[in-house]
Design brief:
Helices cover about 70% and strands about 0% of the residues. A two-stranded antiparallel ribbon has the order 1-2. It is built from 23 helices and 2 strands. Helix 17 packs parallel to helix 19. The model has no long low-confidence stretch (mean pLDDT about 95). It folds into 3 domains: about 120 residues, Tetratricopeptide repeat domain (Serine Threonine Protein Phosphatase 5, Tetratricopeptide repeat), CATH 1.25.40; about 90 residues, Tetratricopeptide repeat domain (Serine Threonine Protein Phosphatase 5, Tetratricopeptide repeat, Alpha Horseshoe); about 210 residues, Alpha Horseshoe (Serine Threonine Protein Phosphatase 5, Tetratricopeptide repeat). The chain is mostly helical.
Length: about 450
């Protein structure tokens, strides 16, 4: 039988279809454009090539085209009879994941990779910031990703895709030195690997090397198509670095060019998260963005996410509405989040309601209440999902709330608690800039 790049047999007799599929998978797994057309070509060569249909389902899911993703997954399921056990498991996981049955999909992934550790696409559903583990509500989701990957690492060798995620999981669990080495080697093997560039930026953030992070992104981003899935988010990292080294004007210019809703090419969730997190930092750091910017993002949130839903999105909807000063919509959003929590429909549980309430308290300038709520949530915020860098916006809000409430000692303790563990650039000098801004 013909094989994919990972040495796994494929149920097709068309070498041309396999070549297109393998190239498409590398583009998909590295966050580059062009996979869809190649998968179309593979299917044109062999209409019964089931895994090409499954890959289209994964791609459409990543593009936030839910109905198309389900349609492609259904086609793959109909082609399952006669496939190998590995391919059937591959398709079943894909189908469950695109249907939103994440817990079931993850249970099958654990079983599947124990037998087929090099089956990359099913494994990919579990990984990254927005994967099944990241949004599981588990407080240990970073550790769980690392343990999953380490359990199968001997089967992967030096593959650039695998090293990207193993390196990422090392970075997010505190072993930045090893993580950066892994990611750097993954980038050397595939310099266009968007996920590796993302992990590399995170590594510099975690060790506090802001200059290295800026230098890398300034050099690397022009090589990456601005329509790609990660261009907006990598630009957000660049803007965040600039903001944190005091270059608010430079950060704002990056926002205007590559992040704001009118400029971004990423899916709505990515766009909202990056815009809201950037603008809210401007609000609390003493660099208030123009009302037109905050209104644009608030309207974007209300248009694309008119009701509370996924917890990480709920957090950033709250930030967008708070930044815009939209008290009525923020209150309505918080009430919907409360209802979802009461119904058991938020995997992180109570913490998402508490954090959103803390943001609302800050927005109405009740800083003592904001401190109380955000301190209460502090030990559980990992459950919301996202990276450490993304969740730092909650810690930043707590620190500024302490300052505005006249509780500088507490602000210093929160700052020290974080900078001693990670993100060392968010240190006493950073705190002094906040003090002078207020």
């Amino acid at each position: 039988m013909l094989e994919d790049r990972f040495g796994l047999p494929l149920s097709t007799s068309s070498a041309v279809a396999v070549e297109a599929y393998v190239t498409a998978m590398d583009l998909l797994l590295s966050a580059n454009l062009g996979a869809g057309a190649l998968l179309d070509e593979a299917i044109a060569q062999d209409k019964d090539f089931a895994l090409a249909h499954a890959a289209q389902a994964r791609l459409k899911q990543m593009e936030a085209q839910g109905e198309q993703a389900k349609s492609w997954a259904d086609r793959a399921v109909r082609l399952m009879p006669g496939l190998t056990p590995r391919e059937r498991g591959h398709i079943e996981i894909t189908s469950l994941a695109v249907e939103g049955r994440g817990a079931e999909a993850y249970r099958l992934i654990e079983e599947h990779v124990s037998t087929y550790p090099r089956d990359a696409l099913p494994l990919s559903f579990a990984l990254g910031v927005y994967g099944l583990l990241g949004f599981s509500g588990r407080p240990d989701h970073h550790r769980a990703q690392r343990e999953l990957l380490e359990s199968i690492a001997p089967d992967w060798g030096d593959d650039w895709w695998f090293r990207t995620y193993l390196g990422w999981s090392n970075i997010e669990t505190g072993d930045c030195a090893n993580g950066l080495k892994m990611v750097e080697s993954a980038l050397a093997d595939n310099p266009l690997n968007g996920h590796a560039a993302h992990a590399y930026g995170h590594g510099f953030y975690e060790i506090g090397d802001v200059s290295a992070g800026v230098n890398f992104l300034v050099e690397w981003l022009p090589t990456h198509d601005n329509r790609s899935p990660l261009h907006c988010h990598l630009s957000w990292h660049h803007a965040l670095f600039e903001l944190e080294r005091g270059n608010a004007d430079g950060a704002a210019a990056i926002y205007d060019k590559s992040i704001r809703p009118a400029a971004a090419h990423s899916v709505p969730m990515f766009t909202l998260v990056d815009c809201a997190a950037f603008l809210w930092r401007g609000v609390i750091f003493g660099h208030p963005p123009p009302d037109s910017d905050t209104r644009e993002t608030a309207n974007y949130a209300l248009t694309h996410f008119p009701h509370a839903g996924q917890a990480f999105v709920n957090l950033h909807t709250a930030l967008a509405l708070a930044a815009a000063g939209d008290e009525d919509e923020l209150a309505a959003h918080l009430e919907e989040v409360r209802q979802l929590v009461a119904e058991g429909r938020q995997p992180p549980g109570q913490v998402i309601e508490t954090v959103c309430a803390g943001i609302a308290a800050f927005a109405r300038r009740d800083f003592d209440d904001a401190v109380g709520l955000l301190v209460k949530a502090r030990g559980e915020i990992e459950r919301i999902g996202g990276s450490h860098a993304q969740l730092d916006v909650v810690t930043d809000t707590l620190i500024v709330a302490c300052l505005r409430a006249g509780r500088r000692d507490e602000a210093e303790q929160e700052m020290l608690s974080r900078s001693r563990r990670r993100a060392k650039h968010l240190d006493a000098a950073w705190l002094e800039r906040l003090v002078s801004a207020h």
